[in-house]
Write a structure and sequence with these properties.
By secondary structure, this protein is an alpha+beta fold. It contains three helices and four strands, in the order E-H-E-E-H-E-H. Helices cover about 25% and strands about 30% of the residues. The radius of gyration is 29 Å and the shape is elongated.
């Protein structure tokens, strides 16, 4: 059994249920071929460096799993057939891995809950009191207090004529 990493890009224009169906299909392929899903990492929608199939962005997902070559063949066959997938790439991380020594997948999370726009409150840093160096107050200058060096050339010529 080998350890693999696959990164694939889903068309961002398809609906959330369709994206979830793709992810569910990959999970079922892994379980059907006696594989073990180790990591499911949703990177979200990102902009491409160049257009792919006339798209400028895509939804990136990375998975790590353990299985045989038949599993990789089945997953890549699914990727080639499904028009909703724009690109994919699979690499071998380790060969001849003991499946019992590999960590199990993290607790089951839904596809949509992996993208959180708001950071958890526990990770917020407490506010530190401001130091005197950072507290610089600057009062706005009034036109009367402005130095004459900053006066425009038009005002200088008017003052010379009088």
């Amino acid at each position: 059994m080998n350890r693999y990493e696959t990164v694939f890009i889903i068309d961002p224009d398809i609906s959330e249920p369709d994206q979830q169906a793709i992810v569910d299909r990959i999970r079922s392929l892994i379980s059907q071929h006696a594989g073990k899903l180790l990591v499911f990492d949703d990177w979200g929608v990102r902009k491409f460096a160049y257009e792919i199939l006339k798209k400028k962005q895509g939804h990136y997902i990375r998975i790590e799993y353990a299985g045989d070559g038949d599993l990789v063949y089945a997953i890549e066959r699914f990727f080639r057939i499904d028009f909703r997938l724009l690109k994919f790439m699979t690499i071998v991380l380790e060969k001849n891995v003991d499946p019992d020594s590999l960590p199990a997948e993290e607790p089951e999370m839904s596809f949509t809950s992996t993208i959180s726009p708001v950071a958890p409150a526990a990770e917020e840093k407490p506010e530190q009191p401001a130091t005197p160096e950072t507290e610089v107050t600057q009062e706005p200058e009034t036109p009367e207090e402005a130095p004459e060096a900053e006066a425009s050339p038009e005002t200088e010529s008017e003052t010379k004529e009088s």
